[in-house]
Design goal:
This protein has 176 residues and is of the alpha+beta class. It has 6 helices and 7 strands. The radius of gyration is 18 Å and the shape is globular.
């Protein structure tokens, strides 16, 4: 019996990792819309992202569209309290106005998606860090990043490409 439970936990974790990658890819699109070629992945995204209110993957659709529910909810809560926003605070807000009852790993899918949508970077002890689905401690803070203006950003991208042959997404956001 314990082996069966461990298998399902591993399977759930693997599936959430796949959906996490789709969420992060969608946040890198100007319109939050991303094509999903693999039929099984589309089904998985629909089964996980839709109920978590992360976006919409319609029944026969080939594209996922990232949602605004959590972005609006958390932005409203942040406006009420102000200051630095910790993972612990975001976890509490997931259960307002009513409890969602989400396990930590599902919360760890919602929180970084919100952070990516709102140009926030994770910090721990004043150091920027990478987060993962499996590790998102409550003491991590998400801070809004000040972004350069669009013209400066495009100039920097052009120079990076011509001097160093570096090409990245032209989307202006905290991750890039």
């Amino acid at each position: 019996f314990p082996v069966t439970i461990a298998y399902f936990e591993i399977e759930a974790s693997t599936n959430l990792e796949k959906v996490y990658r789709v969420m992060m890819d969608a946040t890198q699109q100007t319109d939050g819309r991303i094509a999903i070629e693999d039929r099984k992945l589309r089904l998985l995204v629909r089964q996980i992202a839709n109920p978590l209110l992360l976006g919409e993957m319609a029944l026969e659709a080939t594209h996922f569209v990232i949602g605004q529910h959590w972005k609006q909810h958390f932005t409203r809560k942040i406006a009420e309290v102000g200051g630095a926003i910790s993972v612990g605070q975001l976890r509490r807000w997931l259960d307002e106005p009513k409890s969602m009852g989400l396990p930590a790993i599902a919360q760890n899918l919602v929180i970084p998606t919100f952070a990516a949508q709102t140009n926030r970077i994770a910090y721990r002890s004043n150091l920027a860090i990478d987060t993962s689905l499996k590790s998102l401690p409550d003491d991590i803070e998400f801070r809004t990043q000040k972004l350069p203006d669009e013209v400066l950003w495009q100039t920097a991208l052009d120079r990076a490409h011509s001097i160093f042959n570096i090409s990245i997404s032209r989307l202006l956001n905290a991750k890039n």
